Amino acid sequence: MAQTVVVTSVEDNVEQPLNRRVTISHNATSADPVYDGISIPWVGATVVDDDTADVRVMESAGFTSVSEAVGAGQTDTYTVVLILNPPMT
User: Is the model's pTM score more than 0.70?
Assistant: First the structure.
């Protein structure tokens, strides 16, 4: 009798290549010696990763501006933040 096997991936926060191919192997265990330990073909599957990394730049006062003029404020600051799974905007 045919059996349906459900494959479920594990949710993690690791960005990996999108749509990567994996191979699923099987082991047969049965009280019936005819089926115990038989060879089962491998199954190929595609894993779709939903994790994405992003970099956000947050500028001081909403913009970054520096001037070459002598005596002018020749520096400005901004913050760089690394984000995994940024919210959809």
Answer: no
